[in-house]
Amino acid sequence: MIAMKYVLYSIFLLSVIFFNCSKDDGTINSNIDDNPDTTSTIKLLSLGDSYTIGQSVCTSCRFPEQLKDSLKKIQTQYDFSLEIIATTGWTTTDLKNAIADSNLNNDFDLVTLLIGVNNQYQGKPFSLYENEFPELVSTAITLAKGDANRLIVVSIPDYAYTPFGQGNSEISEEIDIYNAFARNYCNSNGITFIDITDITRLGLEQPQLVASDGLHPSELAYSKFVERLLPAALQKLQ
To answer: What are the angstrom distances between the C-alpha of 126 and each of 11, 118, 123, 132, 177?
Structure first.
């Protein structure tokens, strides 16, 4: 009888020990989070001038913001951050200096570059653009984790097709020279070049493409830019 009581008591103790070491669902207790928060942030950087900062349109209307919002709607598993280094009136020299002063990290997932109209407008020697555009491209690639495939160069809009430009053909001819150089450089170096200039050349016949200042692209025009940029951006973020 005593032996039987000892056996039953031993079984009872083992049951209590096993119960305390186990979860109700039969798994062993653990401090590991089975569902950690793995959401990561995609970092976007846009470099340029008034066309990038969105002169005369709202903050959410400029093309970098519209691009970010479009990406978020498609890639909902990620958070997105956007940094813009751009100011109205900047030439290639101004943008170079601003980037140097910004102390940016070289960890951006996607970079856009749109620069050159103020070189043309301010009558700078074209040789300046020939020298500094490649330098800016190189810097942009460095900022994009050193990966040229993470860079999108955007063509320069043509402000001749605005009330300010008055259809001046000389402006268009000079913008064509700048864009041809940028396109050829990008094509020769395996860099994505997206042409949006033709959209802006509808500005006189479609006034809704021009902002209220009669010079810069409108929110609608920027949305059309994004329609062309988005496929390339998605491919680069895969």
So the answer is: 92, 11, 8, 10, 9
What is the reported pLDDT for 112?
A: 99
| Selection from 137, 78, 72, 77 nearest residue 111 by Cα | 137
- Residues 70, 183: Cα–Cα separation, whole Å: 25
Distance between CA 172 and CA 162 in Å, rounded? Answer: 11
**Does 225 fall in a domain?**
yes
Which CATH number characterizes residue 141's domain? 3.40.50.1110
The secondary structure of the chain in percent helix, strand, coil, rounded to multiples of 5, reads: 50, 15, 35
Distance (Å, whole) CA 42 – CA 104: 15
**Spatial separation of the C-alpha atoms in residues 164 and 216, rounded to whole Å:** 9
pTM value? 0.84
Residue at 10 is within a domain: no
* The total number of residues written for the chain in this structure: 238
